[in-house]
Amino acid sequence: MEKIMDEYGRFALDLLAMGLLLAYLFGTVTDAEGHRGILKIMGAQIAVWDTDYTAYQDYDVYEAEAQKDKPVIEYIADKPMTLGDNRVADYIAASAWDGAELPFLIIRVEDWRGTEVDLNGVYNEADNSLNFLNPGIYKVRVVASDAGNRKTECDISIPVSR
């Protein structure tokens, strides 16, 4: 036992002194405001902000807008288009999430072989009409976007008969 005390006695004494110092710092030191212990004194110095979450309304708007579907574009006619001028609104319709009618734009026309047809020769944007010279099934790419900037682009097959 004497040999152990000779070897580890100084370490045990240092350990005891350190423990007493820590007990003093964590338990008995007080500041001018009456906070007792070093942890409470330091904790009192940390600024605490109270966050007002009622100001975060943007997330509610984002969540409501995210629930709305993108525009729907569909072929609405019961019959095929005929050769010559055809009013596009009689055959194709675009609608928003709430059912409101949307304007749309035709950006590409392909014939039955997949060859792109010159849009200037077929589509008249001013009066929104298609003018086909040959019968067949044409693929028309239509784009619509709503007020929330949700966009739909789809291909619609349009039959054209004599």
- What's the SSE pattern? HHHEEEEEEEHEEEE
What's the total count of β strands? 11
Low-confidence stretches are none
Alpha-carbon Rg, integer: 39 Å
N-to-C terminal Cα separation, in Å?
116 Å
Shape: rod-shaped
Percent in strands: 25-35%
Instruction: Provide mean pLDDT, rounded.
Output: 87
**Neighbour order of strands in the largest sheet:** 2-11-10-6-7
Number of domains: 2
> DSSP helix count?
4
Work out the helicity level. 25-40%
* Strand-pairing-aware structural class: alpha+beta
What's the CATH first level of the largest domain? Mainly Beta
- Give the CATH architecture of the largest domain: Sandwich
CATH topology of the largest domain: Immunoglobulin-like
Largest sheet: 5 strands, mixed
